[in-house]
What we know:
Layout: H1 3-15, E1 27-36, E2 39-43, E3 49-53, E4 69-74, E5 81-88, H2 91-99, H3 137-150
Parallel strand pairs: 3-5
Antiparallel strand pairs: 1-2, 1-4, 2-3, 4-5
Amino acid sequence: MSKVTKRKHVMNEALWDDYEMPKENQSIVKVLKSKGNNLHEITTPTGEEYLVSMPTKFRKNIWVKRGDYILVEPIPEGDKVKAEIVKIMNKDSIKYYKENNVWPKEFDEKKETSADGDDELFVNTNRKPVMTYSDSDSDSDSSDSDDESDK
C-alpha cells in the first residue's frame, strides 16, 4: 500500500463519517499537552489526568494539539500510559455527541469574558515590560483641550 493510500484510509478511519456512539469502555477526554514520543497528557471530565498513546497507524498522519477532544480506550497493561487514542473529535462529531446527550457537561465551553479582555493575550516573559510614567493626568487633558481650541 502506498504512503498516500495509507494516509487516506487512516484519515477516513480517524474522522468516522458514520458518527457511532462511544462504547462502554471508551471515554471522551481533553488534551492538556503533548509529552513527546506520541504521548499526550489528558484530563477526564472528573479531573483525573494521565497519559494516552497515539496508535502506530495514526502517527505521522494525524496530529493532536492542546485543547482537542479525543475518544480513548483504556489499555489493561498501562501503568503510566492508561489509554490509547481511538478517535480525534472534530466540530461535527462534538455537535453530534451533544445532540445525543453523550457529551460530558464538564467539557461544555463557557467563555468567560473579562471587562478588559486581556486574559487570553500572549505575554512574552523573555522581555521586561515597558513602563511609562507621567507626572500628572492634567497635562494630557490640557493639551487635548488646547488642540481642540486651535481647530
